[in-house]
Design a protein that fits this description.
137 residues; 61% helix; mainly alpha; single chain; elongated
Length: 137
Protein backbone atom coordinates (compact mmCIF):
# COMPACT_ATOMS: atom_id res chain seq x y z
CA UNK A 1 0.00 0.00 0.00
CA UNK A 2 1.64 3.31 -1.04
CA UNK A 3 2.12 5.98 1.59
CA UNK A 4 0.79 9.46 1.06
CA UNK A 5 3.38 12.20 0.69
CA UNK A 6 3.65 14.66 3.58
CA UNK A 7 1.74 17.90 3.28
CA UNK A 8 3.62 20.98 2.14
CA UNK A 9 4.42 22.96 5.28
CA UNK A 10 6.72 25.58 3.78
CA UNK A 11 6.11 28.95 5.42
CA UNK A 12 4.43 27.28 8.41
CA UNK A 13 5.61 28.26 11.91
CA UNK A 14 6.07 25.28 14.22
CA UNK A 15 5.74 26.50 17.81
CA UNK A 16 7.72 23.52 19.13
CA UNK A 17 10.53 23.82 16.62
CA UNK A 18 11.14 27.58 16.98
CA UNK A 19 12.58 27.41 20.55
CA UNK A 20 14.85 24.53 19.60
CA UNK A 21 16.20 26.44 16.62
CA UNK A 22 16.68 29.56 18.78
CA UNK A 23 18.70 27.55 21.31
CA UNK A 24 20.76 26.07 18.51
CA UNK A 25 21.50 29.53 17.06
CA UNK A 26 22.41 30.95 20.48
CA UNK A 27 24.76 28.07 21.23
CA UNK A 28 26.39 28.29 17.81
CA UNK A 29 27.14 31.98 18.38
CA UNK A 30 28.96 31.33 21.66
CA UNK A 31 32.76 31.48 21.47
CA UNK A 32 33.07 28.04 23.08
CA UNK A 33 29.95 26.29 21.87
CA UNK A 34 29.32 22.86 23.37
CA UNK A 35 29.34 20.15 20.73
CA UNK A 36 27.38 17.88 23.07
CA UNK A 37 24.67 20.51 23.56
CA UNK A 38 24.46 21.19 19.82
CA UNK A 39 24.26 17.46 19.10
CA UNK A 40 21.45 17.08 21.66
CA UNK A 41 19.43 19.92 20.17
CA UNK A 42 20.01 18.54 16.67
CA UNK A 43 18.71 15.15 17.78
CA UNK A 44 15.65 16.77 19.36
CA UNK A 45 14.98 18.65 16.12
CA UNK A 46 15.40 15.49 14.05
CA UNK A 47 13.01 13.54 16.27
CA UNK A 48 10.45 16.33 16.18
CA UNK A 49 10.62 16.53 12.39
CA UNK A 50 10.37 12.78 11.99
CA UNK A 51 7.40 12.53 14.34
CA UNK A 52 5.45 15.40 12.86
CA UNK A 53 6.41 15.73 9.21
CA UNK A 54 6.91 12.27 7.77
CA UNK A 55 4.36 9.80 6.53
CA UNK A 56 5.24 6.32 7.74
CA UNK A 57 3.83 3.00 6.71
CA UNK A 58 2.48 0.60 9.35
CA UNK A 59 5.64 -1.53 9.12
CA UNK A 60 7.94 1.47 9.55
CA UNK A 61 6.10 2.47 12.71
CA UNK A 62 7.09 -0.85 14.21
CA UNK A 63 3.56 -2.19 14.52
CA UNK A 64 4.63 -5.47 12.97
CA UNK A 65 7.97 -5.66 14.75
CA UNK A 66 9.05 -7.88 17.59
CA UNK A 67 9.39 -7.14 21.28
CA UNK A 68 11.64 -4.09 21.85
CA UNK A 69 15.15 -5.03 22.93
CA UNK A 70 14.99 -3.43 26.37
CA UNK A 71 11.74 -5.22 27.17
CA UNK A 72 13.06 -8.52 25.84
CA UNK A 73 16.14 -8.15 28.05
CA UNK A 74 14.01 -7.27 31.09
CA UNK A 75 11.78 -10.31 30.55
CA UNK A 76 14.57 -12.80 29.82
CA UNK A 77 16.56 -11.59 32.84
CA UNK A 78 13.45 -11.99 34.99
CA UNK A 79 12.87 -15.46 33.56
CA UNK A 80 16.44 -16.48 34.41
CA UNK A 81 16.07 -15.20 37.98
CA UNK A 82 12.72 -16.97 38.49
CA UNK A 83 13.24 -20.12 36.42
CA UNK A 84 12.46 -22.42 39.37
CA UNK A 85 9.01 -20.88 39.75
CA UNK A 86 5.93 -22.12 37.93
CA UNK A 87 5.64 -20.66 34.43
CA UNK A 88 3.16 -17.77 34.23
CA UNK A 89 2.52 -15.97 30.97
CA UNK A 90 0.64 -13.29 32.89
CA UNK A 91 3.62 -12.44 35.09
CA UNK A 92 5.91 -12.27 32.06
CA UNK A 93 3.48 -10.00 30.23
CA UNK A 94 3.44 -7.74 33.31
CA UNK A 95 7.23 -7.45 33.11
CA UNK A 96 6.83 -6.12 29.57
CA UNK A 97 3.77 -3.98 30.40
CA UNK A 98 1.69 -5.74 27.74
CA UNK A 99 -1.34 -7.95 27.43
CA UNK A 100 -0.62 -11.69 27.48
CA UNK A 101 -1.71 -12.12 23.86
CA UNK A 102 0.38 -9.25 22.53
CA UNK A 103 3.40 -10.19 24.65
CA UNK A 104 3.26 -13.85 23.59
CA UNK A 105 3.13 -12.89 19.91
CA UNK A 106 5.96 -10.34 20.09
CA UNK A 107 8.17 -12.55 22.28
CA UNK A 108 7.88 -15.40 19.79
CA UNK A 109 8.69 -13.05 16.93
CA UNK A 110 11.79 -11.79 18.79
CA UNK A 111 13.16 -15.16 19.93
CA UNK A 112 11.68 -17.66 17.50
CA UNK A 113 10.02 -19.63 20.30
CA UNK A 114 7.05 -19.00 22.61
CA UNK A 115 7.83 -17.87 26.18
CA UNK A 116 6.99 -21.31 27.62
CA UNK A 117 9.52 -23.01 25.33
CA UNK A 118 12.11 -20.37 26.17
CA UNK A 119 11.56 -21.10 29.89
CA UNK A 120 12.01 -24.84 29.26
CA UNK A 121 15.25 -24.14 27.40
CA UNK A 122 16.51 -22.02 30.31
CA UNK A 123 15.76 -24.87 32.72
CA UNK A 124 17.39 -27.48 30.49
CA UNK A 125 20.52 -25.34 30.10
CA UNK A 126 20.72 -24.88 33.88
CA UNK A 127 20.32 -28.63 34.42
CA UNK A 128 23.08 -29.40 31.91
CA UNK A 129 25.35 -26.88 33.60
CA UNK A 130 24.70 -28.47 37.02
CA UNK A 131 25.41 -31.94 35.64
CA UNK A 132 28.72 -30.77 34.17
CA UNK A 133 29.85 -28.76 37.16
CA UNK A 134 28.83 -30.88 40.14
CA UNK A 135 30.72 -33.88 41.49
CA UNK A 136 27.76 -35.67 43.06
CA UNK A 137 27.28 -39.30 42.09
Amino acid sequence: MPSTPPADVSGFEDQHLIPLLQQLREEAQRPAASRLFVRGIAQAIAIHLARNYTALTEAARGETSSLPGFKLRRVTDWMAEHMAEEFSLGRLAEQADMSEFHFNRLFKRATGVPPSQYQIKLRMDAARRLLRETKRA
